[in-house]
Design a protein that fits this description.
The structure is a homodimer.
Chain A (H helix, E strand, L loop, with lengths): L6 H5 L5 H5 L30 E6 L11 E6 L4 E6 L7 H12 L8 E9 L5 H19 L6 E8 L6 H13 L6 H7 L8 E9 L2 E10 L12 E6 L5 H13 L16 E6 L14 H23 L7 E9 L2 H13 L1 H8 L6 H9 L10 E4 L2 E5 L2 E2 L5 H8 L3 E7 L5 E8 L3 H8 L4
Parallel strand pairs in A: 4-5, 8-9, 10-14
Antiparallel strand pairs in A: 1-2, 2-4, 3-9, 6-7, 7-8, 10-15, 11-12, 11-14, 12-13
Chain lengths: 445, 445
């Protein structure tokens, strides 16, 4: 049997002071962004995953005085799985990663590498974008003595600017020399753009009596309405999992984690999540998410991915509130998802939350515009445990004072029951504040 | 033959000073909103439409010291047409109006009335909402000696609060006594909520040598992503038009006017546009939009409705820029519409415009997330006449300085050609600024 532990909660000790001081999240010449008030207490202690090593360095792609390239090396024998944005204008690195993943048997006797740069998305950069990805892949392959087809790259940052690939290829041999199994936290920091804190999550479980670890990190705080995966996420485990089972479990968990969060309804061109399983834990390879071991692993993987996804919402650009939208009683799961997203993406709902206004009328509006089947007289709306509307009318127990007090909280629940069927959905979002506009009205200039 | 003249442009004289001083647009106790910098130079001279009279008064529904109820009386023999929101949580007045319109032959020997209140949307107010509509309809019917089934009502303002219908029924006999064919401008002002200026538009044409007039007014500035019609619009003509042709022409023009604007992607529960044709111009009744007369009338009607729709965007909450998104070369009209709306509703595009940043990478992102067929290497993006991106790459002629200068304009054009087919769409929107958040973070409190 397998047990899931959330190491993060257990090991959290103190506010990550380094995150608070980090000036590296700003484009050169700008004032640093304040750490989100919703940031977790600390970055988790990232355990060593046997078979994975990290390094990060300062290449100066766009930012000054901060790390902006990370290299991860995954030992021979590992399986790898990936999910990518479904954007029609996806980046050169995403197109390359999808092609490489499709061509691989999924498990390599030669090992893999992941190279990520921040500051430039290498998106809408034509044929040069693709050749820059090839240059970076070849440089990493040469440094690690693996095939270039086993190197996955991601680029995140401004769209439409040529990537200074030479800055990255120059630093890769130095990073290869400095690879270290204990440097996951350093790697997590190098992939940040407008993030105000690095995002990591950890779980441990036992399979066949053997301890198994899962550790991952992610970035993202704007252009967040992932469609298949979020901005960037990298998850590592020492479990032995077959490539097919790994890919299936990654896809299923993505839908309930990265695909269930939205900051601003804008879907990135670079969304990528990669999951590598080194097999060093020594368990019999998990061949299906439906076996007892597979279910236990999928549950722990899901917890790590949901944790990372929620950290992205907690770092939503300008966010001051973390909001869970729970929809029940819809005619179908699809309808529930539509309603949840209509609420979570509504600028009027999000500004009301920013203003701590229990403006449930805007939730009625969002339900109405969602396109899902809805009946006014069967609809129930809750803020936390407070029923605000039911039976087509403001609830008899409605108290403006109670609701206003509830809205002052930092973590809010909006519950909507449609009273029509068994479809449910949960989506997480944040509020829409002045800081979102400050960050985005002059990001590029 | 028929000629279309745009009276508004011809007769515009001076800034409407009354609008600038209007404190009535504010909920009680709030500072007045500044008039939008995109407001037209003046409210047009509204011509008398033979067979239509207006009145407005102060009922104190929610606002103090301003008119908040308007009454329009339409003479016996008129035809009437209407389009309404498709929201699943539409208001009591919309449900009532849809039922009445469906039950009418469309043309009445008894005439019609329209009653509109601002300050309260009478939405999500259960059975009481419907009975309040009935009370108001009956009061207007009694005052004007017409059947209650011929009275159309609209309510706009806060959602979920009971409507103080008695305040409206009390004032209706007074308004009936004060009806005046010259009071359209007064009526236009009474229906405003967060609008910073009243919105009117006029066209004249000749049919069979007879002068025909079309005059309309509208309100709306937030919760604007109309789906069938916008917030509220009322259009009057003295043309003779059969009910079927009137409804068909209204629906067609709605798709290219009110349904083609978006302020914040949020669809109102109260959207209603009514069009009344009194027939007093004496022309042979227009029985089809396809005849020469029908085409001329439809063109003039379309011009009035587009003018009103654009005024709503010009008064978009917090707007400082009016943006036309023109999509061409899509695989289908539906795909073109998807791309145009994805751009027009993207918070990242809208904040970049607010910041006067020619951030075309975000347009690439919005095209990618729209769900429409797109090929990076065939995509062309323009700001006005400046080609910024083509052939999967930043344009060779791209000049950051030129684009930045263009973005400082108050009226902007974003052109996207997908290079795939013949589908086109045009959508109008505005930028997303701090003022939108100021207005909406505490609208209700």
């Amino acid at each position: 049997m397998a047990k899931v532990k959330d190491d993060k909660k257990k090991k959290a000790k103190s506010k990550d002071k380094a995150a608070k001081k980090d000036k590296g999240t700003k484009p050169a010449g700008k004032a640093p962004l304040k750490v989100s008030p919703l940031a977790p207490a600390s970055f988790p202690d990232m355990p060593v995953i046997d078979g994975v090593r990290f390094a990060a360095g300062e290449a100066g792609v766009r930012y000054l005085n901060r790390t902006d390239v990370m290299l991860a090396e995954i030992a021979a024998g590992a399986a790898i799985a990936g999910v990518f944005t479904r954007s029609a204008t996806r980046s050169a690195a995403v197109l390359d990663g999808q092609a490489k993943l499709a061509a691989l048997p999924g498990k390599s006797k030669k090992g893999f590498a992941i190279v990520v740069n921040s500051g430039n998305a290498n998106t809408f950069t034509g044929a040069r974008g693709a050749s820059d990805v090839a240059l970076i892949s070849e440089a990493a392959a040469a440094a690690l003595k693996i095939p270039a087809a086993h190197v996955f790259t991601s680029s995140t940052g401004v769209i439409g600017e040529p990537l200074p690939a030479d800055k990255i290829t120059t630093i890769l041999p130095v990073l290869a020399d400095g690879l270290d199994a204990g440097k996951a936290a350093v790697a997590a920091r190098a992939i940040m753009t407008t993030d105000t804190f690095p995002k990591g999550a950890v779980a441990t479980l036992e399979i066949e009596g053997k301890p198994v670890k899962i550790a991952g990190f992610a970035k993202g705080s704007g252009m967040i309405a992932p469609d298949m995966a979020t901005m960037l996420g990298y998850i590592f485990t020492d479990a032995a999992v077959t490539p097919g089972a790994l890919q299936a479990m990654l896809q299923a968990a993505t839908n309930r984690s990265f695909n269930a969060v939205t900051v601003d309804s804008d879907t990135s061109t670079s969304d990528t999540v990669l999951l590598a399983a080194t097999g060093k834990a020594g368990n019999t390879p998990i061949a299906s998410g439906r076996s007892a071991e597979g279910r236990a692993f999928a549950k722990a993987l899901g917890a790590v991915m949901r944790d990372l996804a929620l950290q992205i919402v907690r770092d939503g650009e300008g966010a001051t509130k973390l909001v869970e939208v729970q929809v029940t009683g819809a005619k179908s799961a699809r309808d529930a998802d539509r309603v949840a997203r209509a609420i979570a993406n509504s600028p009027l709902v999000k500004t009301a939350i920013a203003g701590q206004d229990p403006n449930w009328g805007r939730i009625v509006m969002a339900v109405g515009k969602s396109g899902a089947a809805a009946d006014r007289d069967l609809l129930t709306i809750r803020f936390g445990d407070l029923v605000v509307a039911e039976k087509g009318w403001r609830s008899e127990s409605y108290s403006e004072a109670e609701c206003a007090a509830y809205m002052k909280g930092q973590e809010l629940l909006i519950g909507v029951d449609l009273g029509l069927g068994r479809g449910t959905a949960t989506v997480w979002t944040c509020d829409l504040t002045h800081a979102y506009i400050d960050i985005n009205a002059d990001y590029r200039s």
